[in-house]
Structure formats: structure tokens, C-alpha cells
UniProtKB/TrEMBL annotation:
Keywords: Carbohydrate metabolism, Cellulose degradation, Glycosidase, Hydrolase, Polysaccharide degradation
EC id: 3.2.1.21
Active site per database record: 380
Keyword 4Fe-4S: no
Record-stated family: Belongs to the glycosyl hydrolase 1 family.
Name of the protein in its database record: Beta-glucosidase
Substrates-to-products reaction catalysed: Hydrolysis of terminal, non-reducing beta-D-glucosyl residues with release of beta-D-glucose
UniProt keyword annotation of Aminoacyl-tRNA synthetase present: no
InterPro entries (alphabetical): GH, GH_1_N_CS, Glyco_hydro_1, Glyco_hydro_1_AS, Glyco_hydro_1_beta-glucosidase
Signal sequence, start to end: none
Annotated region described as Disordered, given as residue ranges: 306-333
Length: 473
């Protein structure tokens, strides 16, 4: 049976500046924290860095033509803070000009630009002044946001402040596997608050400029289920992952408070870290953070089944990056009492389970418990597989085709169940520089030959084009 999408539903794809642009030190751009981190021995698989990435900075016109060929209605991209305000300092006109030309190219192709201000690439100079652990960074981010608006506000309607603050705080400042590579419970907590504060300040400042802007934030969320819904230890394990991964950001954004159970759990482990974090949460901060939104982006890749009991085979945290030495991406010193349960689902090249129904459940949960009348968008959803190029040069990526169809259908399931979901962005438009994995993992519906930078639309790209043309699955 063919099922159709609402007339106003948007189909798009997503990328991030550091992952595709390259031109790392051209036209005034200076080092971001990822430029620095990728040069730390052992930080990135195969010791790659994103100096070239996909060369999008010089190939954007051809890339936009590919988007048009695929029928994309909207394109989610990020601006590089290090390109717009190098070292966090004065505005770089050449950097802004690149994004102005990109936006014009998109509009000329009939594609709606969907702008993200921060996709993890803070200027390294600001990190050396304390980065996200210092309160002043919220003001610096707001200055940067307004600088981008100065150049693009007349043509860009949709603005996302932050992409995945969980990653920019706990993966980056506590786990140490993302830039800047710190390993501190205290620093992760401080970073999480200042990221949210910067978000709220930027929303207020942009809305003061133009009340008609569509303003939001994107969170990476999961579905945390207890292996046994009647087992207190399993329930506790799922509660902790849900609390630190989901509620730590959803609660302040929509309820104006941090989850007290997680604060209590962290205090039991590191009371000094919690004390410093509480001192950083000033009167009025949560009112700023919970400034009403026009949209909420949800990034979903997989769910997890959790137990408080040891598992045969020692199933590990699916968020871990092989080759990296870390204890946890949580503000707890270990997950010794939290265990990931194998349930026999197919796994991707990232080791993540394929669980489309989790996306439907997640969208329903967020709408029921948090977002209310705020429209939801699936701003990232995708899969990495080890694609094989055929003798004819084609990429027949059947696994990605199935993943795409199943998750687009899961999004439609949520819509048919009454959830106000207004768009789906596949991650990613093209194979790119996949952070700590370097070039080792391919998520794109367009293949990139990193030696020649040649682009080839994969079978998944053609399938997505068919879905978009039919507006049905």
C-alpha cells in the first residue's frame, strides 16, 4: 500500500561545515577545535584531518546542482564559526561571502536553506580561553549568530542554534573522544549549561531582530528501554541513560529545569563537580534557556536496550568510538552498573542497531511530554555501510536503501499517529569527514571519491529521489 506525506512536509539532506568544506585555512579562516584535535596523535582513525574534506568550499555549485537533481526541497548546512569570525574575533567578510553565495545558489535551485550556527567547530582560540566551560562564551556565540544574520537574515528563514549539545559537552569535555578532548565531569557539566545558555541568548537576540524567523535547536536523542520492564536494576539503568542523554537537554529547554534525579546521581559520584555547575547556573538562566522555540530538530540513529546486570559477551556502550580510550560519555565515572543488551537486530558499520520503530516512538514521546505545539523535524537520520563500487562505477547500496525506506516510513507512522512532524533530513548528502572516524565511515547517498573528489549518486540517492518525487512511501 502506498502512503502519502502531507503537502507541506519537507524532504531534505544534511551536512556540516567541517565535514565537507575543506579550505581549512583559506580566505581568512583559522583553526577550529577540530582542526587542532584531529592533529593529536591517536585522536582520529587513520590520523586524518579535515583540511580538504569534500572540497565543498570550491565545489558548492556542483553540489547544489546534485541536490536539485535529487529533488531535495531543503538543505541543512552549518556555518563555520572559524570562517565567519576567525579566532572568535572580528567578522571575516570573505567567510560570510561564501555562505551568501551558497544561499543564493540554493534559492536559485528552489531549495530552502536550513542553517545551523554551531555544528561542533568552535574557534580553537576560544577553546584556549576556556571554551564552553566559561560563561562569556555565550556572549561570543550570540555575537557570531548576529554576524551571520547580518549577512543572511534577508534570505534565510530557518535557523538552528546548536547541533547535538550532548556531543559538544559530554563527548567533548567529559569523554574526551571529540574535540577538544577534555576528560572532566565538571567541564562536561559546565559546557552543557553554557551551550544551552548560548542557545537561549541567540534565540532571543535573533527574534528581537526579526520576529518572523523560524528558530530552533537540534538534539540527538535515543530510546532507552529496560531489558526487563519489571526489574528494578534494568529500570534504573534505562532511567540514567534517558536522563543524561535525553532529559538533561529536553527538561531545561521545555520545562525550565534540569532533571533532579540525574543531578542527584552525579552528586553522589562527584559532589564538587555538581557544586561548580550549580554555581554556574545563575538566576534567570533557565528562563533564557526555555525561551519558546519555533521548531525542534531530532537526530536519531538507534535506540538501546539496557540492563543493570552483566551481559554475556560484555556488550559495550554503542556510543563508544573504537580505538579511543575512554570510560564513558556520561558524567558518571563508569557504566559498570549499566549494560547494553544484544537483541539480535542488524547492525551498521558503526556498530549501531537498526531500529526504525524507535524513531516513531521517540517522536511520539517528545511530542507528548515536551514539545507540545512546537513542530518537530527529523534533522538527521542515516546509516554507514562499507559501500562497494561496481565495475560499472555504480554503488548498489541495498542496505542503505532499506534503512532509508524504513525510517522515512517510521516518520510517516508518527505523523499518522498525530505527531506534528514537518520534515526529514537524511544524513548525509554525501560521504564526508566523519569526525573521529575520519574518512573511514560512509553515510552519504552520494559517494565521494576522496582522491578525485568525484561525486556519484548511489542507489540510495536515486531511491530517495523517487520517494521525494512521489511524496509517498
Amino acid at each position: 500500500m502506498t502512503r502519502s506525506f502531507p503537502d507541506d512536509f519537507l524532504f531534505g539532506a544534511a551536512t556540516a561545515a567541517y565535514q565537507i568544506e575543506g579550505a581549512a585555512f583559506e580566505d581568512g579562516r583559522t583553526a577550529s577545535i577540530w582542526d587542532a584535535f584531529a592533529r593529536v596523535p591517536g585522536a582520529v582513525v587513520n590520523a586524518d584531518n579535515g583540511d580538504i574534506a569534500c572540497g565543498h568550499y570550491h565545489r558548492y555549485r556542483g553540489d547544489v546542482a546534485l541536490m536539485k537533481e535529487l529533488g531535495l526541497q531543503t538543505y541543512r548546512f552549518s556555518t563555520s564559526w572559524s570562517r565567519v569570525r576567525p579566532d572568535g574575533g572580528a567578522v571575516n567578510a570573505k567567510g560570510l561571502d561564501f555562505y551568501s553565495r551558497l544561499v543564493d545558489e540554493l534559492l536559485g535551485a528552489g531549495i530552502v536553506p536550513w542553517l545551523t550556527l554551531h555544528h561542533w567547530d568552535m574557534p580553537q582560540a576560544l577553546e584556549e580561553q576556556g571554551g564552553w566551560t566559561v560563561r562569556d562564551i555565550a556572549d561570543r556565540f550570540t555575537e557570531y549568530a548576529l554576524s551571520v544574520h547580518d549577512a543572511l537574515g534577508d534570505r534565510v528563514q530557518h535557523w538552528t542554534t546548536m547541533n547535538e549539545p550532548w556531543c559538544s559537552s559530554f563527548l567533548s569535555y567529559t569523554a574526551g573522544v571529540h574535540a577538544p578532548g577534555r576528560t572532566s565531569i565538571r567541564d562536561g557539566l559546565l559546557a552543557s549549561h553554557h551551550l544551552l545558555l548560548a542557545h537561549g541568548q541567540a534565540v532571543q537576540a535573533l527574534r528581537a531582530r526579526d520576529a518572523d524567523l523560524d528558530l530552533g535547536i537540534t538534539l540527538n536523542l535515543t530510546v532507552a528501554d529496560p531489558a526487563d520492564a519489571d526489574d528494578p536494576l534494568d529500570i534504573a539503568a534505562a532511567r540514567r541513560i534517558d536522563g543524561q542523554f535525553n532529559r538533561w537537554f529536553l527538561d531545561p529547554l521545555f520545562l525550565g529545569e534540569y532533571p533532579s534525579d540525574i543531578v542527584r546521581d552525579i552528586r553522589a559520584v562527584d559532589p564538587a563537580a555538581v557544586s561548580d555547575w550549580q554555581d554556574a547556573v545563575h538566576d534567570g538562566d533557565l528562563a533564557v534557556i526555555s525561551t519558546p522555540l519555533d521548531a525542534l530538530g531530532i537526530n536519531y540513529y538507534h535506540g538501546e536496550l539496557l540492563s543493570g546486570h552483566p551481559q554475556p559477551g560484555g556488550e559495550g556502550d554503542p556510543h563508544e568510538t573504537p580505538g579511543q580510550q575512554r570510560e564513558t560519555a556520561s558524567p558518571f565515572p563508569s557504566h559498570e552498573d549499566i549494560h547494553w543488551v544484544e537483541r539480535g537486530l542488524p547492525r551498521t558499520d558503526m556498530g549501531w542497531e537498526v531500529q526504525p520503530d524507535g524513531l516513531t516512538r521517540l517522536l511520539r514521546r517528545v511530542a507528548d511530554e515536551y514539545s507540545g505545539a512546537v513542530p518537530l523535524y527529523v534533522t538527521e537520520n542515516g546509516v554507514a555501510y562499507d559501500d562497494v563500487v561496481g565495475s560499472d562505477g555504480e554503488v548498489a547500496d541495498a542496505g542503505r536503501v532499506a534503512f532509508l525506506r524504513d525510517h522515512v516510513a517510521a516518520t510517516l507512522d508518527a505523523i499518522e499517529q498525530g505527531v506534528d512532524v514537518r520534515g526529514y533530513f537524511y544524513w548525509s548528502l554525501m560521504d564526508n569527514y566523519e569526525w573521529a572516524w575520519g574518512y573511514a565511515k560512509r553515510f552519504g547517498i552520494v559517494r565521494v571519491d576522496y582522491e578525485t573528489q568525484r561525486r556519484t549518486v548511489k542507489e540510495s540517492g536515486r531511491e530517495y529521489a523517487r520517494i521525494i518525487a512521489a511524496r509517498a512511501i
